[in-house]
Amino acid sequence: MARNVTQRRKILNTAAAWTIGLLIFFPILWTILTSFKTEAQAIADPPIFLAFDWTLENYGAVMERSNYSRFLWNSIVIAGGSTILGILIAVPAAWSMAFVPSKRTKDILLWMLSTKMLPAVGVLYPIYLLFIQFGILDTKIGLVIVLMLINLPIIVWMLYTYFKEIPGEILEAARMDGASLKEEVLYVLTPMAIPGIASTLLLNVILAWNEAFWTLNLTAAKAAPLTAFIASYSSPEGLFYAKLSAASTMAIAPILVLGWFSQKQLVSGLTFGAVK
Amino acid sequence: MSLRNSAFAATALSFVTAGGVFAETITIATVNNGDMIRMQGLTDDFTARTGHTVEWVTLEENVLRQRVTTDISTRGGAFDIMTIGMYETPIWGANGWLVPLNDLSAEYDVDDLLPAMRSGLSHDGTLFAAPFYGESSMIMYRTDLMEKAGMEMPTAPTWQFIREAAAAMTDRENDINGICLRGKAGWGEGGAFITVTANSFGARWFDEDWNAQFDQPQWAEALNFYVDMMNESGPAGFAINGFNENLSLFQQGKCGMWIDATVAASFVTNPNDSTVADKVGFALAPNSEGVAKRANWLWAWALAIPAGTQKEAAAKEFVEWATSKDYIELVAGKEGWANVPPGARTSLYENPEYQKVPFAQMTLDSIKAADPQNPTVDPVPYVGIQFVAIPEFAGMATEVSQEFSAAYAGQQTVEEALAKAQALTNEVMESAGYR
Questions:
Q1: Nearest of B58, B192, B273, B274 to residue A234 by alpha carbon
Q2: Is there a cis peptide before residue A46, judged by omega within 30 degrees of 0?
Q3: What domains, with CATH codes, occur in chain B?
Q4: N or C: less crowded end of chain B, CB within 10 Å?
Q5: Domain A66-232 belongs to what architecture?
Q6: What secondary structure letter does DSSP report for A187?
Q7: pTM, 2 dp
Q8: Is the pLDDT of residue A131 over 50?
Q9: Size of interface A-B (CB pairs under 8 A)
Q10: What ipTM score was computed for the predicted complex, to two decimals?
């Protein structure tokens, strides 16, 4: 039975939701606003919110100094490549764990997740040496592999959770109709899990896009993505906050737009199975 | 093979072998400081002279330090030139990680490098990195506020004078703090500042047997003096202020005095960014009355070539170009004398054009007042003024500065912070085998 919600409560809930939303969004908004200020206005005290002379000079300076399109392309390839590769490996893995579990399945899942608990810097040197050995330092393929591996536990976990929601009987029915294993996964399971796969995909693109430890440490000039682009504008000796904000805005803009247009899929995927 | 193909191959081979050096693309790791960015903008001049092209990897200082340390210690070869400082250079040079710069050309005039810079970037007399710009620390003060307080800044003041002047300049109602100093944790931030302050009170990090000295009265005196003065006349929340925070406060007219890197002089006197550009005076970093050492540090951002690079010849050409007298002339011609990289060459300070820059002489005097071989009143077993040039220092000093920052913020007493610093430093030195 639906609960009676009073008008007053509705207004309060809406106001609370907007307040929390704006609070979360405020740092991004401030970064965007700062990118249109001069360096002097960026550090003004009291801070200037909107009443300043809007300028595009920071964007001009950033575009002149850095090859933005190369950083952007590297980000697209690394984030997209690692996510697709991860999904290709994780779908069969999650299928087997969800529908053909063994008595060790839970342990394997927990073990996979435990690899995320290790601080990344702890394995920096071994990974760096492996990269030198294989000649993949400062290459996109090297980063695609590393980011795929570090995000794989999350992808498998998410897909496993979604697959568990799908009744096994449907797959059994498909098998009885003569579907092969490949057809079962490709034509029955995958279409049913599309919202889950889509949200996993989006979340992993965002994670890979924002990953800043490995992308900074395993690249130099050729494969550096947008995280390195932002880092190049941070300075401990000099106030370049407006330029740093312009670089940050340019780096987050693509993922912000992607997130905005796919928010419906993201929300439906993330709440998949939450309400039974 | 046809005759035509043979002729083509022979011609190509002769091009490759005749010159010895041909156009290369070199990768340079650097920091995002004003002088470095200017250098990036002038790379075309280097390419026009040599034919070599340059790819830049610009990173924030701490990220850069971690990135290049990983690469050089594993012989990764990701970079052909690295921007490093006075702390890393002697250690890496001793490890054989850097190409010695002992065959620079006669036109380069290596003897023109400021002696303090040359010695700080050498190991056993061999130069391992060429200084791009150098700095010490000095006092920057508001001439108008000093006058209003009825005081006159001596060229070489004492800490006691500074404290008195800071109190006189403080005007809480108008949000003016008599003095702004670093308090932020980090060995290169607040750690560097408090170390030189302690030097100027007669303290030192270690005695000659590598025993920590934080239990000595000079450290307590220095730290208590700093905390009391900052509580009296410093900005609120000074425990989290670093270079940038103080620069921002000073540029907005909220500091009477600021003691920090000499390189800041060009920022605070730049009318585009600073509201007090025409009211800034300079003086030598202070000392406690009767103590022979002043609170001067010495630092250089320098260009070094990692051993094992495949492009050593081209990298050397770049290092010579970027740290040459010609480069200084190039920057002066395009951006004015106030914007040339300071603190590296003696000839710059002999140049009558540069002598007109208001902070030029004080920068040179400050650099000259710093001696990394003899940084403290009592003898020490280490080289370095605001740091101790041993590999363990960065981690250890960061922890010590965190304890000090907690004391600045009032989370513990100065005595507690010093006791913790003493214990953790001795522990590190013992496990590293120094004691």
A1: B58
A2: yes
A3: 3-134+299-360 (3.40.190.10), 136-297+379-431 (3.40.190.10)
A4: N
A5: Orthogonal Bundle (1.10)
A6: I
A7: 0.86
A8: yes
A9: 99
A10: 0.82
